[in-house]
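To whoever is on call:

I kicked off a structure prediction for a single chain this morning and the downstream step that reads the tokens threw a length-mismatch warning. I double-checked the sequence; it's 109 residues and nothing unusual in it as far as I can see. Pasting both halves so you can look.
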Amino acid sequence: MGASINVRLFSAGDAAQVRNLFIRVTRLLVPPHMTEVFEGYIARSLREEVDRIVDYYGDKGGAFWVAIDAALTLYRNSGYELVREELSVAESNATVGAGLRRFYFEKTL
């Protein structure tokens, strides 16, 4: 059995990171010919959901949860092996800024 993933209730201090993650991941998934459509989707989703997470989920009797340091655990639980990690020294299209730790995994298919 793999390692467990820690989750906790969303707090106001998570708002900026959740917002940034939603934008970054959504933009990574957009087909090039649909950029304009997805920018509209992002703006609407931020306004109606992401920027008001507590109210959005609370109005439905639910809650929003955040995972704590879950990415590495998800990879390991999926059979990937960490082969290298490094600290980025410069910002690129794939990173938000310098000083981020990069992890490199392998998986035998």
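Update from on-call: the warning came from a stale cache, not from the record. Cleared it. Sanity check on the structure: Helices lie at 15-29, 35-48, 53-58, 70-77.
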